[in-house]
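Students often ask why inverse folding is considered easier than folding. One informal answer: many sequences map to the same fold, so there is more than one right answer. In these notes we will look at a single instance of the problem. The structure comes first.
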């Protein structure tokens, strides 16, 4: 009995399996009044009219798409009603209307029906066009300017919670879709958690619950809590509390914020917890997805230890992949250039990928990449999953990873917003985090490096690099650390010295099988990996392509022949209709 063949693909039942978690379906359908209030139809119509925008894109998260058609209808009705009211505010008498019609190019002999048809056509031309963006290119918290530009939108209305990252191209109307909160139960839990009424507490809530903060603060202050600070939403991810105001004393002295605890309504993203871990006294979370909520104290030490372990692991990586996880956040191209220069100055190689929503299956296709760096909003840059084949870090963690072993210091500080990272003053002794703008390798890229450029040093001066986790020597940590151009041409100077110069030609040449591709004289690590380590290189890779050549060795082109033509029920080959 013959043995079974090798498994060349995943089981058929897993082909259409979606790795993203399922979005909970709302249990009860909202009434028309609830839709009108929760999605702030009146305010949205007012802002659209004030901005005089004609093409409006509506962006909903997945869990709100069920309400998208109803919101669309309410907005269209509201805009139509606003246009009618605007016309009625300008009184028109019969004589005035007759004078207006006589001043136009319309023939006076046409009947009244034609006049009303022209008026209806004019009204239709002034009508706003609404478009629902059914699927976002990246995370739901980010404004999808790319999808909005596909429909030539003048403005985008973003529904649900948002990272509030600054956008680059389109104006945005944010609708936070307010949710209900049991204030009495929340106050009871707060009093039990903070029995000392002199405790300094900042009240923070997830965006859909933020409208309850002012009322919650007033009721707590009436019961004797005099040092309760209600935060307000601002569009500033670089704030000490991202996108929130801070107490006045903390604005002048950030260390004053360490005297405050955070009482956060609803579960915050992990990136926010990491940012606050070094800035506040403690963070307590009030979940809103349970019927009997209990406060939880945020513990970020295990997560910080894991992030530092990933940084240590990638300190000896030779090839980095840069994932572009946003095309809407302002200055994302500057952040890309910053990361590329950091990697290049450390003598390492980088490749750029635009993949949309990141999942393990996409980036597993590039096994030559040792580690990944995500450029996205401050919430989506932190990717925590054991399913990924290689570690994924943020631009801030990249700066730490590329510092030398003797200068790498990381306490509990964690920075998520790359805008904050770009605005920080670079330390001259920061090693890999230093960017001098010259494009040359830094003087303190790794421990033990002597003064000078890597390309100008002898190989004996280059210190060995070891993986701090395993203690093993890493030979490919700096694939571009000693790049030399191909020296082919030479001439002799007057002093008798021979000068070598690289050929300026960029012509395409045929290489022998097994040669490694080079770019500007630098060996491509991806090409080396493809040649030496990849066991499968695509269909037909095990066949050698042979060309027909003439007596002079030039490749002969194949003769042009007429192919099949006709319809599916009967093809004809050339003029011979019998060959079908």
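Output (designed amino acids):
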């Amino acid at each position: 009995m013959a043995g079974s063949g090798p498994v060349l693909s995943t089981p058929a039942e897993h082909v259409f399996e979606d790795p993203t978690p399922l979005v909970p379906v709302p249990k009860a359908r909202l009434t028309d009044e609830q839709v009108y209030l929760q999605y702030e139809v009146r305010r949205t119509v007012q802002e659209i009219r004030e901005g005089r925008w004609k093409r409006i894109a509506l962006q909903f998260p997945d869990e709100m798409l069920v309400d998208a058609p109803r919101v669309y209808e309410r907005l269209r009705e509201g805009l139509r009603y606003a246009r009618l009211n605007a016309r009625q505010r300008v009184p028109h008498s019969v004589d005035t209307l007759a004078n207006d019609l006589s001043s136009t190019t319309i023939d006076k002999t046409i009947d009244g029906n034609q006049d009303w048809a022209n008026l209806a056509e004019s009204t239709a031309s002034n009508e706003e066009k609404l478009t629902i963006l059914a699927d976002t290119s990246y995370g739901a918290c980010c404004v999808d300017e790319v999808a909005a530009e596909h429909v030539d939108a003048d403005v985008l209305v973003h529904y649900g919670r948002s990272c509030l990252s600054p956008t680059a191209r389109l104006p945005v109307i944010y609708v936070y879709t307010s949710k209900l909160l049991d204030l009495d139960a929340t106050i009871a839990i707060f009093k039990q958690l903070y029995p000392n009424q002199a405790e300094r507490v900042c009240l923070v809530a997830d965006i859909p619950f933020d409208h309850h903060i002012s009322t919650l603060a007033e009721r707590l202050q009436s019961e004797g809590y005099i040092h309760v600070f209600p935060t307000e939403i601002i569009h500033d991810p670089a704030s000490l509390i991202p996108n929130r105001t801070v107490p006045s004393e903390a604005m002048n002295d950030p260390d004053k914020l360490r005297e405050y605890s955070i009482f956060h309504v609803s579960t915050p993203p992990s990136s926010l917890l990491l940012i606050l871990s070094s800035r506040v006294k403690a963070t307590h979370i009030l979940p809103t997805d349970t019927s009997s909520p209990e406060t939880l104290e945020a513990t970020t030490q295990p997560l910080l230890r894991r992030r530092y372990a990933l940084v240590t692991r990638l300190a000896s990586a030779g090839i980095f992949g840069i994932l572009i996880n946003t095309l809407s956040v302002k200055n994302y191209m500057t952040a890309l250039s910053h990361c590329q220069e950091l990697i290049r100055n450390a003598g390492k190689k980088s490749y750029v990928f635009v993949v949309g929503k990141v999942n393990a299956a996409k980036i597993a296709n590039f096994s030559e990449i040792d580690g990944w760096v995500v450029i996205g909003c401050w919430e989506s840059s932190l990717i925590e999953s054991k399913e990924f084949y290689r570690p994924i870090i943020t631009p801030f963690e990249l700066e730490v990873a590329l510092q030398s072993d003797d200068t790498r210091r990381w306490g509990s500080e964690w920075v998520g917003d790359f805008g904050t990272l770009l605005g920080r003053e670079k330390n001259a002794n920061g090693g890999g985090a230093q960017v001098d703008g010259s494009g040359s390798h830094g003087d303190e890229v790794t421990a033990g490096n002597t003064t000078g450029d890597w390309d100008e040093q002898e190989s004996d001066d280059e210190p060995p690099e070891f993986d701090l986790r395993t203690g093993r020597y890493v030979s490919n940590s700096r694939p571009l650390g000693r790049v030399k151009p191909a020296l082919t041409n030479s001439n002799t100077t007057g002093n008798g010295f021979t000068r070598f110069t690289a050929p300026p030609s960029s012509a395409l040449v045929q290489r022998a099988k097994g040669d490694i591709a080079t770019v500007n004289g630098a060996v491509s690590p991806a090409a080396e990996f493809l040649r030496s380590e990849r066991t499968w290189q695509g269909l037909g890779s095990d066949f050698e392509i042979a060309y027909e050549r003439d007596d002079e060795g030039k490749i002969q082109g194949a003769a042009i022949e007429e192919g099949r033509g006709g319809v599916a029920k009967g093809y004809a080959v050339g003029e011979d209709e019998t060959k079908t």
